[in-house]
Design goal:
The longest helix is centred in the N-terminal third of the chain and has 15 residues. A six-stranded mixed sheet has the order 9-8-10-6-7-12. It has a four-stranded parallel sheet with strand order 3-2-1-5, with helices on both faces. It has a four-stranded antiparallel sheet with strand order 13-19-18-15, with no helix packed on it. The protein is built from 17 helices and 19 strands. A hairpin with a 6-residue loop joins strand 8 and strand 9. The protein is of the alpha/beta class and about 450 residues long. Helix 4 packs across helix 5, helix 10 crosses helix 16 and helix 13 crosses helix 16. The radius of gyration is 22 Å and the shape is globular. It folds into four domains: about 150 residues, Rossmann fold (3-Layer(aba) Sandwich); about 100 residues, Ubiquitin-like (UB roll) (Roll); about 110 residues, no CATH class; about 60 residues, OB fold (Dihydrolipoamide Acetyltransferase, E2P), CATH 2.40.50. The protein binds iron/sulfur cluster (2 copies). One iron/sulfur cluster binds next to helix 11 and helix 13.
């Protein structure tokens, strides 16, 4: 079996983003493989733990991909102050005699954004609404590369590394089965410091908010890089609860057209046409959204990577251009309007270097600075008695169950497969036990 077949058989999907199936992403011709170790969201420590403790395995996986796909250049990209991680990787690269480079990035946000990291490492600008492959690059993050390493040993992707931090007694990096409940993970981190709290699945900037009432349904998926426990009356919870009508009204009455959101937008700074202040201006006129969908500024909302810089850091009026872009992207999608590239040339803004946002200041603006310097070094491995494994943990269509209620499964058994011809990934049992329910997710209970 070739490496792409092994990756597909193990059900590996991108751990750092939306869960694009890795065996599909790696199909193509590339002249540069970038291993993304920037872990640019404040508070996350998962990839750093892997780089410190699994450097040899990462190098082995990277070399295997390089050789199988004939990629001439391979680069680990990480922050310049990740000194221990750099040292561990350099030592593993030396031991393997491997032609792998290290690129040390400044500590800015969003250094780990795919298009940003491609520019930082290669000086190439990915076209608007394009993929890194259009400029010969493929980007996989460190956790994905470790899952590739395991797939090379025929170990399916069933265990997930993630950071649990914030308002918990003992912030920790966990290794738990996919499908473990958030509640269990929080207990493994010593429990929450308050009775009620707001949880974020992922980083404080781009992670998905989970209100306290929704906590019982939240489980670790293949893409969960962190669980943040934050105050229920904190910045992030308050930010998430502003509804879109209220936000549009505020945009109409309070946007002062200062252009800060555009000046600091990382996609705009790469030379893409996205200008959030112009989108806000168009909406401020009060025209119904449906009538604006063919406007070129509005269509540029499709270039937004939802990094949150505009609303968390840039806007002096507390407005939410990102939230509005998310609403517009959905409206454009529903109307079947795709981004049409009209430009043929893209030049990064001359002031881009000066407008990079220091991660530490961003953490302060995002209301998470009190957790920013937590030292998290330990790994805790645990297996709960029950897992609930969603069937839609990847981009594409949900996987189709291959088990029924009552079946006994061993850890690593296939329990769901992609539909014939559809984009998707295989899903495996993450614990040994009996299947208790099958629906949009599969629940397995051990000891039954
Ligand atoms: S979220 Fe804001 S800053 Fe980020 S890409 Fe979108 S418009 Fe630009
Ligand atoms: S930063 Fe805020 S106030 Fe300024 S143009 Fe953008 S949305 Fe309007």
């Amino acid at each position: 079996m070739g490496i792409l077949e092994k990756i597909a058989a193990a059900g590996v999907v991108g751990c750092g983003g939306a869960g694009f199936p890795t065996h599909v992403k790696l199909k193509g011709q590339f002249d540069c493989l970038i291993v993304n170790g920037a872990e640019c969201e404040p508070l996350l420590r998962t990839d750093r733990w892997l780089m410190r403790n699994k450097a040899a395995e990462l190098v082995e996986a990277v070399l295997a991909v390089k050789e199988a796909l004939h990629i001439p250049r391979v680069v680990f990209a990480l922050k310049h102050h990740y000194e221990e991680e750099s040292a561990a990787l350099r030592s593993a690269i030396r031991a393997a005699g491997a032609p792998i480079e290290l690129c040390e990035l400044e500590s800015f946000y969003p250094a780990g954004d795919e298009q940003t990291i491609v520019y930082e490492v290669t000086g190439r600008v990915v076209p608007p609404a394009g993929l890194p492959s259009e400029v010969g690059c493929v980007v996989d993050n460190v956790a994905t590369m470790y899952a590739i390493y395991e797939s090379m040993q025929d170990v399916p992707f069933t265990q997930k590394y993630l950071t649990v931090t914030g308002e918990v007694r003992s912030p920790v990096v966990l290794r738990v089965p996919v499908g473990t409940s958030f509640r269990h993970c929080i207990e493994l981190a010593g429990g929450a410091l308050t009775n009620r709290f707001y949880t974020v699945a992922g980083g404080p900037m781009m992670g998905r908010g989970v209100p306290y009432e929704g906590l019982d349904d939240a489980v670790v998926t293949k893409t969960t890089s962190a669980i943040l426990v934050l105050p229920e009356d904190g910045y992030r919870a308050g930010h998430d609860t502003v509804d879109i009508c209220h936000m549009l009204n505020r945009a109409r009455s309070a946007c002062i057209q200062c252009t800060q959101c555009t000046q600091l937008c990382p996609r705009h700074l790469l030379g893409h046409g996205l200008q959030p202040h112009r989108i806000m201006r168009k909406l401020a006129a009060g025209t119904a959204v449906g009538e604006l969908l063919h406007d070129s500024d509005i269509r540029n909302a499709q270039l937004c990577c939802e990094c949150g810089v505009c609303e968390v850091y840039a806007c002096p009026m507390g407005l939410q251009p990102r939230k509005i872009n998310v609403m517009l992207k959905k409206a454009l999608r529903d109307a079947g309007i795709k981004y049409q590239r009209t430009e043929t040339h893209w030049e990064p803004n001359l002031n881009r270097e000066l407008r990079k946002i220091p991660t530490e200041r961003l953490a302060s603006r995002a209301g998470v600075y009190q957790y920013y310097n937590y030292e998290i070094r330990e790994l805790l491995c645990d297996t709960p008695e029950q897992v609930t494994i969603p069937l839609n943990m990847h981009i594409g269509v949900p996987a189709v169950p291959t088990v029924t209620v009552g079946d006994v499964v061993q850890k690593g058994d296939v329990i769901a497969c992609p539909q014939e011809g559809a984009l998707g990934a295989i899903i495996h049992a993450s614990i040994t036990g009996r299947v208790r329910s099958v629906g949009t997710s599969i629940t397995i209970v051990s000891g039954e």
